[in-house]
Amino acid sequence: MANKIDEIDMKIIKLLSQNARMTYKELADKLKTTRQRISRRMNKLEKLGVIQKYTAIPNYEKLGYTYLILGITLRAGSDVDEIIEKLQNIECVKIIQKAIGSHNLVVHIIAPHDMKRIQDIINEISKAIPGIDHMDITFITETTKIEFF
């Protein structure tokens, strides 16, 4: 099994990023190949860690939740990995990303539609991160496009 990612692999990734529920047969039909070849390629992509997860993207608003993003800037010398470990244990934290630029960390949170609860969550996160220099909070009001590839 070659470790090289080729044009067919890239097409598979793009199709799955649009619809992760596509079957091997549907992928094979679209790419004019066989299910067995798709199966082998999928195994390769998963083994290489190119495909990390298959997931659904819920509409948080319809579920009664608020989606917010924290841009966190840390003081120099802060242990980013230690902070990430602490954030991973907070239930409402759904995505943690290391970043370069204005912020060291970008943290995605799903919280109930209750401003007091959101304030409590932000306070909990602030206490969990001893090296915060600055934190920006952005409330996501609508997602108009999600495209991963």
Q: Keywords for this structure?
A:
Alpha-Beta Plaits, 4-stranded antiparallel β-sheet, 6 helices, 149 residues, 40% helix, Arc Repressor Mutant, subunit A
Descriptive overview:
The chain has helices at 7-18, 24-31, 35-47, 60-63, 80-88, 115-128; strands at 65-74, 93-98, 105-112, 132-140. It is α+β, with helices and mostly antiparallel strands and 149 residues long. It folds into two domains: 7-47, Arc Repressor Mutant, subunit A (Orthogonal Bundle); 60-140, Alpha-Beta Plaits. A hairpin with a 6-residue loop joins strand 2 and strand 3 (105-112). The model has no long low-confidence stretch (mean pLDDT 93). GO terms for molecular function: sequence-specific DNA binding. Pfam families: HTH_24. InterPro entries: ArsR-like_HTH (IPR011991), AsnC-type_HTH_dom (IPR000485), Dimeric_a/b-barrel (IPR011008), Tscrpt_reg_AsnC-like (IPR019888), WH-like_DNA-bd_sf (IPR036388), WH_DNA-bd_sf (IPR036390).
Can you lay out the helices and strands and say which pair or pack?
Elements: H1 7-18, H2 24-31, H3 35-47, H4 60-63, E1 65-74, H5 80-88, E2 93-98, E3 105-112, H6 115-128, E4 132-140
Antiparallel strand pairs: 1-3, 1-4, 2-3
Helix pairs in contact: 2-3
How would you sum up this structure in a few lines?
With 149 residues, this protein is an alpha+beta fold. It has two domains: 7-47, Winged helix-like DNA-binding domain superfamily/Winged helix DNA-binding domain (Arc Repressor Mutant, subunit A); 60-140, Lrp/AsnC effector binding domain/regulation of amino acid metabolism (RAM) domain (Alpha-Beta Plaits), CATH 3.30.70.920. The chain has helices spanning 7-18, 24-31, 35-47, 60-63, 80-88, 115-128, and strands at 65-74, 93-98, 105-112, 132-140.
